Amino acid sequence: MSRPKPRRSSLAGASPVAPPTEAQPEAASSTAAAPSAAARSKPSVTVAAPTESPPRRRYPPKVSFYQEPEDSARMRAAFLHTQGVEGLRSLSHFIDRAFMVEVKRLEARQNDGRQWPAVQPGGSRFGSFPGCRPSGHGSGRRRRPVPSRTRPTGLA
User: Given CA atoms 88, 90, 91, 92 in this order, what sign does their dihedral have?
Assistant: First the structure.
């Protein structure tokens, strides 16, 4: 016993957004020569042309960083309580402004106020460098303990 062939929908390939496409010439000639009874009884489907939509807003690339939960809570509180007064549109806008203030300070202090050449993502080595102390060193902040890398006792 063979399975019946699946029926093809008259809407297959049609999109409510995309304009209708022209049929392939060879497909059009073969259907024009011998239309099936089912095709003759079904009305043709036309798709309306899409309306002109406003261009989509392009957002800058997303970046992420690690931050202590207490600092994150403090940052969100500062944003929330000063959003209307400072003209901040979003938390991203707030973070971007804060980063750029520090970048400009570093450029002024370390590079005579000139911008450094741009560095593409993944184009530099981050981490600790010999002779550099971590930014949190001596600040009195408690760091989370590093989990032990030894094997627990009692396991075979």
Answer: negative
User: pTM for the complete prediction?
Assistant: 0.45
Q: What is the pLDDT of residues 9-20, one digit of tens each?
A: 877 777 777 666
Mean of pLDDT values over 101-116: 95
The pair of three-digit structure tokens given for residue 154, joined into one six-digit string: 């009692």
Q: What is the phi/psi pair of residue 6, to 5°?
A: -65, 145
Report pLDDT for 55.
76
Q: Say if 47 falls within a structural domain.
A: no
Which domain, by its residues, includes 101? 89-115
**Residue whose C-alpha is closest to residue 14's, from 56, 55, 50, 51:** 50
